[in-house]
Amino acid sequence: MQRLPGAVEGTSYGTAAFKVRGKFLVRLREDGETLAVRCEFDERDARMAAEPKAFFITDHYRNYPAVCVRLAAVRAADLKSVLESAWRREAGKRLVEQLDGKA
Fold this sequence. Notes:
The longest helix has 16 residues. This protein has 3 helices and 6 strands; from the N terminus they run ββββαββαα. The protein has a 6-stranded antiparallel β-sheet, with helices on one face. It is globular. It has one domain: Aspartate Aminotransferase, domain 1 (Alpha-Beta Complex). The mean pLDDT is 93.
């Protein structure tokens, strides 16, 4: 997360997590093998349809804009994409411009 300006390490539900501007981005789930990542419903559905072994949800996340990611199954490029997408939604214009080299 060093590459995403403003991302701050913390905890969520007792596990390692990252937030930006105080908003949830990602957390390690209790099993230590999956992540919960902020993700809009349409993006979540598309990711689960394209890569069902890597992206899924549990009943807990059904009504929450997040997707679960199996670390053992996700491709590095897909993980980077879902994390950056979550960050861009929550970071705000100034931080996005900083990442894009426009600030």
